[in-house]
Amino acid sequence: MSAGHGHGHGHSAGAAADKKLLGGALALILGFMIAEVIVGFAAGSLALVTDAAHMLTDAIAIALALLAIRLAAKPPAGGFTYGFKRVEILSAQANGITLLLLAAYFVYEAVNRMIHPPEVKGALVLITGLVGIAVNLLATWLISKANRSSLNVEGAFQHILNDLFAFIATAIAGLVVLLTGFARADAIAALVVAVLMLKAGIGLVRDSGRIFLEAAPSAIDPQALGAELCAIEGVVEVHDLHVWEITSGEPAASAHILVAEGLDCHQIRIQIEQVLAERHHLTHSTLQVDHATAATGEAHCSDAHGVVHRSITTAGQAPGPAIPPTH
């Protein structure tokens, strides 16, 4: 029997740089948000108030991302055997849910204003929108330089990016109101922003949900991976194959491998670890490798979790399709 553990914990060497970039973006967002709230109420613009509220969530998103980076850097302790890496995913999911809730609220408000359009001061909306574009361009650029493979950082980036789109829509609405007096343009701009928020929110909730449910990374097909491992010379069966993500960008795998009698379990385990690392970037793997017993027609483990992948049988037959577990 051979038990192997391939290590590859993805500690981010650029965590300090990410914190500086996120901190700079946070300062920009907070400063402009205060000014926008004042101007938004003075101009009677839902689009500006929408943007200001979105900027508040931007600030919260960045603050959560900074906190998550700090907590994720803590080493494993006590019952937290992976440390606090999934705090980053909690942050990403919170950002996604916030975007969805705000989108629903702004759709409601925009529809009301489409029916009963208030007076909107187009000049103030246009000027604020243009300044907002400049501020958010800088904030977006700062966060884009951080490690966006982290779902946590990506969540903050999506907030800022959507706010940039919101200010573009707001500036266009302000120009339309200023030139034509069409007040409903403000509500239409809010609707456009709400749709963009909805799209980003769904993506964040979906991706963070996959990690919480310990689904395989989207780039890895567990069924194909099981068949690939069975194709390695000497491997008879693969079961209890699990592939998941500890946090975004840090996949892991575990499996029970059966090899033919008389072969070197340790050597085959090393081959499997190389395949996992080099072809699938699964550098964090835990493998239990045993010799297969004489053919009895029964599964090695009666309670195997998931699909059982089998290679050549002792009778020398060609490999058949993967079979489901017995339970």
From TrEMBL:
<feature type="transmembrane region" description="Helical">
    <location>
        <begin position="188"/>
        <end position="205"/>
    </location>
</feature>
<dbReference type="GO" id="GO:0005385">
    <property type="term" value="F:zinc ion transmembrane transporter activity"/>
</dbReference>
<feature type="transmembrane region" description="Helical">
    <location>
        <begin position="52"/>
        <end position="73"/>
    </location>
</feature>
<dbReference type="GO" id="GO:0005886">
    <property type="term" value="C:plasma membrane"/>
</dbReference>
<dbReference type="InterPro" id="IPR027470">
    <property type="entry name" value="Cation_efflux_CTD"/>
</dbReference>
<dbReference type="InterPro" id="IPR002524">
    <property type="entry name" value="Cation_efflux"/>
</dbReference>
<keyword id="KW-0812">Transmembrane</keyword>
<feature type="transmembrane region" description="Helical">
    <location>
        <begin position="164"/>
        <end position="182"/>
    </location>
</feature>
<keyword id="KW-0813">Transport</keyword>
<comment type="similarity">
    <text>Belongs to the cation diffusion facilitator (CDF) transporter (TC 2.A.4) family. SLC30A subfamily.</text>
</comment>
<feature type="domain" description="Cation efflux protein cytoplasmic">
    <location>
        <begin position="223"/>
        <end position="291"/>
    </location>
</feature>
<feature type="transmembrane region" description="Helical">
    <location>
        <begin position="123"/>
        <end position="143"/>
    </location>
</feature>
<feature type="transmembrane region" description="Helical">
    <location>
        <begin position="21"/>
        <end position="46"/>
    </location>
</feature>
<dbReference type="Pfam" id="PF01545">
    <property type="entry name" value="Cation_efflux"/>
</dbReference>
<dbReference type="InterPro" id="IPR036837">
    <property type="entry name" value="Cation_efflux_CTD_sf"/>
</dbReference>
<dbReference type="Pfam" id="PF16916">
    <property type="entry name" value="ZT_dimer"/>
</dbReference>
<dbReference type="InterPro" id="IPR027469">
    <property type="entry name" value="Cation_efflux_TMD_sf"/>
</dbReference>
<dbReference type="InterPro" id="IPR058533">
    <property type="entry name" value="Cation_efflux_TM"/>
</dbReference>
<feature type="transmembrane region" description="Helical">
    <location>
        <begin position="94"/>
        <end position="111"/>
    </location>
</feature>
<protein>
    <submittedName>
        <fullName>Cobalt-zinc-cadmium efflux system protein</fullName>
    </submittedName>
</protein>
<keyword id="KW-0472">Membrane</keyword>
<dbReference type="InterPro" id="IPR050681">
    <property type="entry name" value="CDF/SLC30A"/>
</dbReference>
<keyword id="KW-0406">Ion transport</keyword>
<feature type="domain" description="Cation efflux protein transmembrane">
    <location>
        <begin position="25"/>
        <end position="212"/>
    </location>
</feature>
<keyword id="KW-1133">Transmembrane helix</keyword>
